[in-house]
Amino acid sequence: MKTIIEPFKIKSVEPIRFTTLEERIKILHDAHYNPFLIHAEDVLIDLLTDSGTSAMSAKQWAGMMEGDESYAGARSFFRFEKAVQDLTGMKNIIPTHQGRAAEKILFTIIGGAGKYIPNNTHFDTTRANVEFSGAVAVDFQTEEGKRPDVIAPFKGNMNVAALEKFIQETGAENIPVCFITVTNNSGGGQPVSMQNIRETKSVLNKYGIPLFIDACRFAENAFFIKKREKGYDNKTPKEIAQEMFSYADGVTMSAKKDAIVNMGGFLALNNDSLATQARNLLIVTEGFPTYGGLAGRDLEAIAQGLEEVLDEHYLTYRLRSVEYLGNKLTEIGIPILQPPGGHAIYIDAKSFLPHIAPHEYPGQSVVCELYKIGGIRSVEIGSVMFGKYDEKGNIVSPPMELVRLAIPRRVYTQSHIDYVIECSIELHSNRKSLTGYAITYEAPQLRHFTAQFKPLA
């Protein structure tokens, strides 16, 4: 098989500033050992997130020049609305400035004390918005999904049996909605099967609970279904995505992922009453319902991006480039969450650094070392991001301690990824000398964004 090349040509470039080891040691210290606090110009390869960091196409930039900036009823909104309706089949399309704004509006309306929101696995902003409303976020990840070394085609699936047991014990009246996140970001970017979505919907129908899809990476999930699930190999990614959404009653999406834009999101609903409440809250917090905190040019770019992301040549390149990095790290001896996901590689920091206990944040140690070695920015997804405290103040760790290397869309070439691999060889050589970290400052919610650390002697 021939090399899978980037299905695009480069028309515009942005220079990278190279730093020395001595500079990076000082930068890391001054940033309190938190990559979120490092200035972007001091990063060589930025794998912190794939959210809003993608490169837009020539057609998207052309669409931005055509953006209608009218305050109400802009032409660009109706193009955006048509694109989202065509994909999701939802009646009510409500633009927001990003995905967490859609979550904030939704959970302000349906959340609150005494409510429970199940999900295959909540990601950070979804969990934060659920909990900020006073509700409780509950995860139902499958057992195989909690084991990084297990290879299975759909490790992002919902544990349907556990979900139904929870509904029976908690009471359907206390569960206003159930979410499925595709792909399962906190679970390693792992896909959810169509069968699992159908089974989840069937259980929810029994108890009258709506199903919502967090669609940030819907196209990647659809392509995994095409490649791995029986009966879908002859369907297009768009047809598969449309079937996924056909089982949902609502959708939230950060367009900064699989719409390949730098800003934007939406809330899509079939329930007219809920949509009216959401639009009223949107006007207070985001803007008029036909722009929702976005410029007309952003709406144009999203509409175009939702078309481009479903191209099979793009999706083949996207999944293969992530797999390439995962395979190379495995060859080096760095344990990763298997199999490689759709948008990122997740290093299994717990297995990689067994001498560092979860409460000493082994993932943060990997993150800091990668930056020090090569100026590579990544993010911890473990006890820093999802750890909680018990009544005695002891850290309660999540099942996995991961480090995510998220690949921005259409930004880096294979030589950039080969540089990451070369730095990872040095990371592997240094692993026994790495130490844990302690938190010296943390915010009450989403602490990983602003937390400060110190290395343990």
Written description of the protein model:
With 457 residues, this protein is of the alpha/beta class. It has two domains: 21-50 and 311-455, Aspartate Aminotransferase, domain 1 (Alpha-Beta Complex), CATH 3.90.1150.10; 58-308, Type I PLP-dependent aspartate aminotransferase-like (Major domain) (Aspartate Aminotransferase, domain 2), CATH 3.40.640.10. Helix content is 40%, strand content 13%. Helix 5 (124-132) links the parallel strand 3 and strand 4. Helix 2 (58-65) packs antiparallel against helix 11, helix 3 runs parallel beside helix 11 and helix 8 crosses helix 9.
Can you tell me the residue ranges where pLDDT is under 50 for at least 5 consecutive residues? Answer: none
Q: What order do the strands of the largest sheet run in, or round the barrel if closed? A: 2-8-7-6-5
How many E strands? Answer: 16
Work out the helix count. 16
Could you tell me how far the N terminus lies from the C terminus, measured between alpha carbons in angstroms? 50 Å
CATH architecture of the largest domain: 3-Layer(aba) Sandwich
Q: What is the CATH C level class of the largest domain, in words?
A: Alpha Beta
The CATH topology of the largest domain corresponds to Aspartate Aminotransferase, domain 2
Q: Judging from the principal axes of the Cα atoms, what is the shape?
A: globular
What is the total domain count?
Answer: 2
Average pLDDT rating:
97
Helix/strand-derived category reads alpha/beta
Name the CATH superfamily classification of the largest domain: Type I PLP-dependent aspartate aminotransferase-like (Major domain)
Rg over C-alpha atoms, rounded to the nearest angstrom: 21 Å
Helix content: 40-55%
Strand content: 5-15%
Largest sheet, in brief, is: 5 strands, mixed
